[in-house]
Write a structure and sequence with these properties.
flat, alpha+beta, single chain, two-stranded antiparallel sheet, Cystine Knot Cytokines, subunit B, 3-stranded antiparallel beta sheet, 7 strands, about 180 residues, about 30% strand
């Protein structure tokens, strides 16, 4: 009789613990739903939206430093084999060199950022005492990093906007890979 009583009391205490846990989860969910409007504040004024974006980017979503030199996205790019040993910057000395181009997304904060663009389709090879040459036995491919941007999205009426954190894959450099081979 005592074993049954102990087992029943153990089952009841486990059941009570599950109910309490469910209640705690409900309370957390309700509390979270009450906070959402605070986090998704709507801004009517563009300057106020810009200021809020800058504050959030500085405190919550720090951004990497932008490179000093960039090229226009529509300017021609060529593989700089002949200049290869003369350059000192990392992006120019790589066996898969790249340049930075400015990308603009008007509805994002920051609205302009630098992205790497590979200059060669192959990779620069240096063999023996031969001059550097581009080899298509390898591929230059972008190295991507996920960055957080704040996207300007309309609130209910469409005249006010809120900031939504979004992730964007941004090319930060290029590397050399063997080409994919399919068997």
């Amino acid at each position: 009789l005592q074993v049954n009583t102990t087992r029943d009391s153990l089952v009841n205490s486990q059941s009570d613990a599950k109910k309490k846990l469910r209640m705690d989860m409900k309370q957390i969910l309700i509390f979270g739903l009450l906070l959402v409007p605070v986090w998704t504040r709507c801004y009517e004024d563009d300057q106020e939206l810009q200021d809020a974006a800058e504050r959030k980017l500085m405190t919550s979503y720090t951004q990497p430093e932008e490179p000093q030199t960039t090229a226009a996205p529509d300017s021609p790019a060529s593989c700089p084999v002949e200049h290869f040993p003369k350059q000192s910057a990392d992006h120019a000395r790589s066996l898969s060199p790249w340049r930075y181009v400015l990308v603009t997304k008007k509805d994002h904060f920051p609205s302009t950022y630098a992205e790497a663009q590979c200059l060669c389709s192959g990779c620069i090879l240096i063999q023996n005492n031969s001059p550097p040459m581009e080899s298509h036995d390898y591929n230059s491919v972008p190295v991507k990093q996920t960055r957080v941007f704040l996207k300007k999205e309309p609130c209910d009426g469409g005249k006010k906007y809120h900031l939504k954190p979004v992730t964007v894959k941004v090319a930060v450099g290029c590397t050399c890979l063997r080409p994919n081979t399919f068997s």
